[in-house]
Each structure stands twice: as C-alpha cells, then as structure tokens.
Request: fold
Amino acid sequence: MTALTLDIKDGIATITLNRPEVYNAFNDPLSYELQDALKKVERDATVRVVVLTGAGKAFSSGQDLKAAMEGGKRNLSESLHKRYNPIIRAIRNMPKPVICKLNGVAAGAGCSLALACDIIIASETASMIEIFINIALVLDSGSSYFLPRTVGYHRAFELATKATKVSAEEALKMGLVNKVVPASALDEAVAEEAKYYANAPTKAIALMKKMLTKGMTEGLDEVLEYEAYCQEIAGNSDDNTEGVKAFLEKRQPAFTGK
Reply:
C-alpha cells in the first residue's frame, strides 16, 4: 500500500490515509487501498477495533479534483459506485467499532467518511465542511444519510447548501462528534478509547451497531422483533457467559470477542 498505512497491534487496527501533501485527498489508489484495508481488518480475527485517521494536518479533503480531471471528465455516478460507496458500506457493515481520529479538516467525501464512523474524537483544531456546493455538486458518500439523522433536516440543509465550515467545538455542540480534546492530547484520547473497545464484548457491539442503524429507519414493531433476535444471539455468546460469571464473582470480565 502506497496511499495509506495499516498498523495492527493489541487488537487495534489503525488505518492512516497517507497523502499529506494534498491533505489526504482521494485519488484512485487511496480509494481502492482503503477498500482493501477495511476488508483485511474485518477478516482479521485479532482485530477488535479500527481507528481511521489522516497523516499530517488534515483528516481528508475529499476528492482530489486534479486527479479526477486526468483523462477527461469522469462518470461521477460510476466513481461513487466503484470507489466511495464500497468504503462507506464497509465501515457501516464492519462488525467492529470504527473510531474516527479527526486530526484536521474533513471536507466533502472526507466529511462523509468521518460521519460513517461509530465514534468521532476530534482535535480542537479539526473542522468539518460539506464543501460540495462550492463546485455545484451534491452530497455524496453517505452524507445525505448521516447528516440529517445527526443534526436534523434544517441544520443539515444549511450546512449542505452553504458549505458552512464547522469547528470542532461547534461540531460537538451539534452532536457531530463525540469528544473534542487539545491537539496534543488526541493520540492519548484515541488510544484510551480504542483500548476500551479492544477489551469489550465485540460480538455484542457488532449486534448493537446493526440494531442502532436499523433503529434509525425501521418502525417500533420491527425494531422490537430485531432486538429479540439479536438478544438471543448475544445471550449464547462466550462473552455473555463470562460477563455473568464475572458479575457473580465480583471481578472484571475478560472478554474475548466471541
């Protein structure tokens, strides 16, 4: 891999977008390498949690427009189907929590990428911007799904149609991110969060990830049925047995993710 790095240690997989000279903008190699990296960490049974971040000053500035124009105007629908949508689906279908380490600006598809993650921990110097309208394009890569569900329709409309740049603190108030920390404390804050999930009951978390996504779109009756279905699966896991045993023995559980 040339456009990103992948490090796996102690149950934590860290994927770092590595095109800092263009603020980690997406070209074809980065798009396909990220797809491959997400497939790899999903298959790796030793990985319990994924951290996604960017090298240098930015998380991701979205599409590399210069690269996109090479060879003439491309089919944008085809580009989304082949390059971006598989990434968003891979994150949402990942049976492991995905933490966004928001180290800098997340713009356009980069903003969508951050919103697709399960938890966002931001540096106080980070920002988010749905920049599509500035080149007369529309939201893509899942932003039209995630944004209104997070901040409501009216705020989402404003952010999308005005390309309003949102600071980390503003994003926290809107519920776009989970936590904001000083830039110097970002590594430690994300490491602490990742360590928690690396030792958590992974199967139960994977089920809850599916349940919460379904809960945003399904009716109450469907959700109640799905809860019962998932609870039966969770109740038959090794981690449930260990959790109950640890509770009765008044000790910390040692979850294995099985």
About this structure: The chain has eleven helices and nine strands.
